[in-house]
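Exercise 3.2. Students should predict the tertiary structure of the chain below and write it as C-alpha cells, then compare their answer with the key that follows.

Predict this chain's 3D structure.
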Amino acid sequence: MVAGFVWAFIWLGLGTLALSILLYSSSMPETKLLSWVFGVHGAASLAGGFTAAKRSGKRGWYIGAIAGLLYAVAVVLIGFLSQDIGFDSRMGLLGLIAALAGAFGGMLGVNAGAGANARRM
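Answer key:
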C-alpha cells in the first residue's frame, strides 16, 4: 500500500508539472483548469492502485480503491492544512474519482502481477 501511495504522489508531481507548463505556455486561464486537475488526480490514483495491487497480488479492485481513497484523503488533508481550503462538493467528487480510478488501476495491477508470476513458473 505504501508503494502505491508513493507512486500516486510521484504521478501527482508529474501531472502538476505538466499542468504548470500548459498554463505557462498557453493563454488558458486558471479558472478552466478544474477538469484537468481531476484528470491528474485520476491518473495518480490509477497509478497508485496499480502499484499497490500488483505488489499485493490479490483483491485488486479493493486494494486499488483503498489506495485511491487514502490518496484523496491525503490530498484533501494537505489542502486543508496548507491552504485552509474548506470542504465542498469538489472534495466528494475527488474521493469518487480517486476511488474509481484506483479500483480500475488495481484490477489492471493484480492482473499484470498475475501474468508476471505465471511467466516465472
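Discussion points: Helices lie at 2-25, 34-56, 60-83, 89-120. The mean pLDDT is 89.
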